[in-house]
Amino acid sequence: MCMKKILLLHGWDFRDYTKLTRSKNPWHNDIKFINALKKEYEVYQLTFPGFCGEKEPKEAWTLDDYALYVNSYIRTSNIKFDYILGYSFGGAVAIRYNILFNNFQKLILVAPAITRNTNRSIKFIPTPEILKPLRKVVKDLYLKYIIKNEFMINGTRFLNDSYQNIVRVDLINDIQYIKPYNLKIIYGTEDNAVNPNLVYENVPKEYKKRIFFIKGADHDLVNNYAKDIVSIISK
């Protein structure tokens, strides 16, 4: 029996910024999850630029650029994937890919960064156009040395600028453009990196049935709850 094919889109993890990361694999910390998936599916993995030694573009990317990258990979690989699984940031990319290219793959979003806890966001005073370069410098310094954001501390210019482009993108309204039957969303009840309750409260009723919660799991749920996730996917 032929296994169904699943493409994995990884999250945004500063531990994967280095080219020394084992086997250029951004899932190297999630072996339990990968092994559990491989028992049920034919697994393919895509590594985004800047991670695990993958070459970086000269200019920062937006979420749509990452979606274009996924589309290019799928087209050149000539593989017909049955599912796209996006974890955290990878879930956000999967949503944009689905919308931009009107594809028919089923989406599995694990702890997707659809919307975040905006109460913790830093509000900046509107800045005149001429002062925007200075505003960016101040914001970078604030995130690195006051907040001590590890994503910013460890990143290259490409990664840092791309991170700031995508980290506050809100996709809550984008969900409605994906067919409910093509979607499964999996969150941990203790996820404090993104805001699963805010997602559940703000999606239309037919999408609430497509959201599954794993009790006790936090944002880093793929290893500790690998069997639970695979069970939800398989059903």
Give the number of DSSP strands: 6
> Quick one: overall form?
globular
Q: Which structural class do you get from the secondary structure elements?
A: alpha/beta
Number of helices: 9
Widest sheet, order of strands: 2-1-3-4-5-6
CATH class: Alpha Beta
Tally of domains:
1
As residue ranges, the low-confidence spans are 118-125
Q: Taking all residues together, what is the mean pLDDT?
A: 85
Write the layout of secondary structure elements.
Elements (H helix, E strand, L loop, with lengths): L3 E6 L21 H8 L2 E6 L16 H15 L5 E5 L1 H13 L4 E5 L21 H15 L3 H5 L2 H10 L16 E6 L7 H7 L2 H4 L2 E4 L11 H9 L1
Parallel strand pairs: 1-2, 1-3, 3-4, 4-5, 5-6
What does this protein look like?
The structure is a single chain. The protein has 235 residues and is α/β, with parallel strands linked by helices. It has a single domain (4-121, 169-234), classed as 3-Layer(aba) Sandwich (Rossmann fold), CATH 3.40.50.1820. The protein contains nine helices and six strands. It has helices at residues 31-38, 63-77, 89-101, 132-146, 150-154, 157-166, 196-202, 205-208, 226-234; strands spanning 4-9, 41-46, 83-87, 106-110, 183-188, 211-214. The protein has a six-stranded parallel sheet, sandwiched between helices. Helix 3 (89-101) links the parallel strand 3 and strand 4 (106-110). The longest helix has 15 residues, at 63-77. The model is unreliable at 118-125 (pLDDT under 50).
